[in-house]
């Protein structure tokens, strides 16, 4: 069913690594809704090759860019603008990585060089993508820029490690840049706080399966799948959400506002 919610819109989609990626599903839905976009990922992710298959399906190209490099982002935007034939209406930042998480360092034994890397890749890159966009004046009025977050930005999830601070920073950048970009050019900036999702980034977090199941039991609607997140992203890129900005939007089946569920109570009955 095509409704062409994004007809005539152009943009950038980062972070499609494989078919489980939230960005991968977003690209397919954005295409279905009439958008034109360029895909990008870190040069190292290109080696896996899967993103080229997605590009074929979406009838587009892939431009490698390390999101921590201002030069790479400048080059990405310049080439994408030429390929797409104009400025952008949307940018998806779907990027996250913590070397501390990946290498199993505990929160009380962090490697600080890696902490900087976690913040740079997972949060500051969001600022970089917007600052370069502003300087190149590459966004159209009423454009929409989105990042993806997790509730560990507000509450303690011990296994989430230094990614918790990275997400808190990401959400803060969305607010601060959202104000600035709104004033400057009526561009809106938001984060979507997504349920645990079975992707490479998600399953890399310690104890993922347990907290995936816990979260599913806590949410009246169950965990929100990646496909549904992609639909939400498409709606946020569409003209139907023009006045939503500087928000952290929970897309989590009701998890964030549930104190406790019957399912969880049941498990503690005889303790
Ligand atoms: P994913 O592993 O498919 O995507 C993460 C992407 O970040 C990959 O494509 C990776 O190549 C890219 N990336 C890493 N370093 C980069 C760099 N220096 N430059 C450019 N790209 C780089 O996993 P997923 O889950 O689709 O992640 C997308 C976003 O959603 C991330 O921000 C993640 O933290 C967030 N999120 C994920 C949840 C989950 O449970 N999977 C829950 C809530 C938020």
Automatic annotation (TrEMBL):
Binding site for NAD(+): 15, 21-22, 95, 167
Active site residues according to the UniProt entry: 150, 160
InterPro entries, per the entry: Enoyl-ACP_Rdtase_NADH, NAD(P)-bd_dom_sf, SDR_fam
Pfam family, one: adh_short_C2
Enzymatic reactions: a 2,3-saturated acyl-[ACP] + NAD(+) = a (2E)-enoyl-[ACP] + NADH + H(+)
Coiled coil: none
Protein name per Swiss-Prot or TrEMBL: Enoyl-[acyl-carrier-protein] reductase [NADH]
Taxonomic placement: Bacteria, Pseudomonadati, Bacteroidota, Cytophagia, Cytophagales
């Amino acid at each position: 069913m095509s409704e062409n919610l994004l007809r005539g819109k152009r943009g950038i989609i980062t972070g499609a690594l494989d078919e489980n990626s939230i960005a991968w599903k977003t690209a397919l839905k954005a295409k279905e809704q009439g958008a034109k976009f360029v895909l990008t990922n870190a040069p190292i992710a290109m080696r896996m090759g899967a993103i080229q298959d997605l590009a074929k399906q979406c009838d587009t190209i892939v431009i490698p860019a390390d999101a921590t490099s201002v030069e790479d982002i400048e080059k990405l935007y310049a080439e994408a603008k030429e390929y797409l034939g104009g400025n952008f209406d949307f940018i998806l930042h779907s990027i996250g990585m913590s070397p501390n998480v990946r290498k199993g360092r505990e929160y009380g034994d962090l490697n600080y060089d890696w902490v900087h890397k976690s913040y740079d890749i997972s949060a500051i890159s969001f600022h970089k993508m917007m600052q370069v966009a502003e300087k190149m004046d590459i966004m159209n009025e009423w454009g929409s820029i989105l990042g993806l977050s997790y509730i560990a930005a507000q509450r303690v999830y011990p296994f989430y490690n230094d990614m918790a601070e990275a997400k808190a920073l990401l959400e803060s950048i969305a607010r601060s840049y959202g104000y600035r970009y709104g004033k400057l050019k009526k561009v809106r900036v938001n984060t979507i706080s997504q349920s645990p999702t079975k992707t490479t980034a998600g399953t890399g977090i310690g104890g993922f399966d347990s907290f995936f199941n816990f979260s599913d039991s806590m949410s009246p609607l169950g965990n929100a799948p990646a496909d549904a997140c992609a639909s939400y992203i498409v709606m946020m890129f569409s003209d139907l959400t023009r006045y939503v900005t500087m928000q952290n939007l929970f897309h989590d089946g009701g998890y964030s506002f549930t104190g406790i569920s019957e399912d969880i109570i049941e498990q503690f009955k005889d303790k």
